[in-house]
Amino acid sequence: MEDWLVVVVALVAVGLIAGVLAGMFGIGGGIITVPALEAALSYLGIDSAIRMHVAVATSLAIIIPTSLTSAYAHHRRGSVDLEIVRRWAAFLFAGALIGAWIASMVHSRTLAFIFASLALATAVKLILFPESRNFTQSVPRGAWVPVIPAVIGNFSSMMGVGGGTFSVIALTLFNHPIHRAVGTAALFGLIIAVPGSVGFILAGLDDVRVPPGSLGYVSLIGFLLIAPSTVIAAPLGVRIAHEFSERKLSILFGAISIVASIRLFYKAIA
């Protein structure tokens, strides 16, 4: 009983932190919730072979209400680019569904290393060279552009994050203002999390190793402990984000990207 009490308190606290970060940076909170859930599952003695599957799947499910709350708060401040969302939504959705299917079968160390490198390089740019030239002066519309949201959806789903880290990186490199990139990324999180969650639920339905109270690989207990806290805290994160100048928010997002890259590098080599 004491073991469960420790886990409950810890996961509620994790939900509050993840909610604030989701609101501030449009990242969905997966950077925080995935390692926290994995640690909780380890503490409770869940089979190591499926711990990451359960952590990633549950994180994606939590991102659904979190992204809704965060995106709505950003939209009220005019920080969601609905035109880009309409252009990218189908490709994000398809990429996320494929990513969940791949993640249920293969290891993503190489992919984690690639995107950790990208996150680190972007952090360096945001912190040290904020005025340097971007790839383009606006988000491009070429025939090859759908590859970008498809890749974002694919690897975000595989890693259990809402896509904010990769989306904000991409949009800012296309000269999108940081506040608007963050708000748009928050809505991307919803588009990625829904198919990602469904994919993990279907993939885990016949796995007898899942912890009690699970739907496929999604832990309903973990969801119910974390999701309410993230929903409550996300609007606070949005308010904090809009208190910062574009420069300061870029530095903060750069710092978050460094943390994400360290985590992904560790995952790649562990």
Quick tags:
mainly alpha, two-stranded antiparallel ribbon, globular, single chain
Strand content bin: under 5%
Number of spatially distinct domains: 1
Order of secondary-structure elements = HHHHHHHHEEHH
Tally the helices: 10
For the residues shown, what is the average pLDDT? Answer: 82
Low-confidence region ranges: none
Q: What is the number of E strands?
A: 2
Question: What is the subunit arrangement here?
Answer: single chain
* Fraction in helix: over 70%
- Backbone CA Rg: 17 Å
Apparent shape: globular
Judged by helices, strands and strand pairing, the structural class is: mainly alpha
Query: How do the strands line up in the largest sheet?
Result: 1-2
Question: Can you offer a commentary on this structure?
Answer:
With 270 residues, this protein is mainly α. Helices cover 76% and strands 1% of the residues. β1 and β2 (218-219) form a beta hairpin. A two-stranded antiparallel ribbon has the order 1-2. The longest helix has 29 residues, at 48-76.
